Amino acid sequence: MYLLGIDNGGSDIKCAVYDLNGKELAISRTQIPMNIPEAGFTERDVENVWEANVKVIKAVLKKAEIPGEDVVAIGVTGYGNGMVLLDEEGKPVYPAIISTDERASSYCKKIREDGTEKKIFPYTLQTTWAAQPAVLLPWFRDHKPEVLEKTKWIMSMKDYIRFRLTGKVAGEITDASSGCLVNLDTRRYDRRIFEILGIEDCYSKMPKILESTDISGYVTKEAEKMTGLTEGTPVAAGYFDIDANALASGVLSDQELCLIAGTWSINEYLSKEAPREIEKKKNTVTLSYMKDYYIMEDSTPTSASNLNWYLNHFVRPEKQELSADEIYIVCNKQVESVKPEECKVIFVPYLFGSATHENAHGAFLNLTGGDDKSVMLRAVYEGIAFSSMHHVYNLKRSLETYSKARLSGGISNSEVWSQMLCDALQIPIETLEAGEPGAKGAAMCAGVAGGVFKNLEDAVEHMVHVGKVYKPRSEYKEIYAEKFARYEAALAAVDLLAEKLQ
Fold this sequence. Notes:
Oligomer: single chain
Number of strands: 24
Helix content: 25-40%
């Protein structure tokens, strides 16, 4: 018996198959183009996205050399927010909007300034950002009302993929809770929120919300023909990707810090309480995979993708004979050759997004004529680690309250990087066995929904396995504290430049 996890990310679409002990038997991934019809618009053709999902599902079954009937349950996850708009027949009436879309950014400013955001906060416990349905729908109301008139269902991309697998329209609680339209106390869409936002006609277009481990439906005959899955296989409601990643990290209590360092630096923890006053709101708050907890999250695209940029421009052209794994080994050795106290260069990892000012970009600062590529590479490693630290401190919780941190993503594959972050944070860090945490979290959800596991705790016991454990070295505490202070000063400097260049 096997479990299948599907992850629709902002960049990659992935599918992986696992045995019931959490071993990843095979994974397949693909990318499809992002369309940018206007500045700030990020879209994809909805049918192309579904075809890409079909492609990775078929490929992973072939790689794993298992028939569809051996898959006992299927789970889905994906980026939160953005939108897929469907008509009465389940056909898209507009391209899929991706979570990086910024067309409605002025609406965030407007509802903040006119007091609307403050009125809905007691229900949502959230402030808005540009790709949330709460601001995208008013944008469509004002700019493309004919699209909303044709729309029967408003859903996330993950929910759309599940719809194509099962033929059943449904929402899911962790994903829905991130869109600033759900009352986090009642766990349902709240008509009052829609009325305050002036989109009351959209209330009836929101699908029924399921709990994450509910069975949302079963693979249809049509989906069987397209994917190689077996008709009648149960499909779980699934998770928002930050939940899938945290679950796959084995985080089941508020004692653990979850760090995900891939394209994005995602930093989160479970909490039984959330700020009830907008003035005290510090982080993104959503409902979590653990029913009695919220997820408190702080994140930006300031992580390992910045290293890939450096490697593509300054390392791979000179090391074309080396494989990707060999290049990472070389990089780790170069970084180790420079002691942390010897590196005075600061790298700001804002190549793909900023954690501070919206117009701030990446930078190397404090370079001298004596610095070589090894020093610059260490600065890149440190800058990405410090970006995670920046978010952890933004979570406004004392580090002493965590028993440990669980680390996954690109950083966790490097012992040098993992130890660096451990020394900088000064808390124990555990990495996980290699694999895709998003897809695994989706598969674990499927295991509970399909009755393979009794509950999430049982799923974690069977499927989550620690790779390596790092202990903080006290002799580096002051060194990294001083370096992090310089990093924060560098962020202030690039923010100041961004203001000057506006």
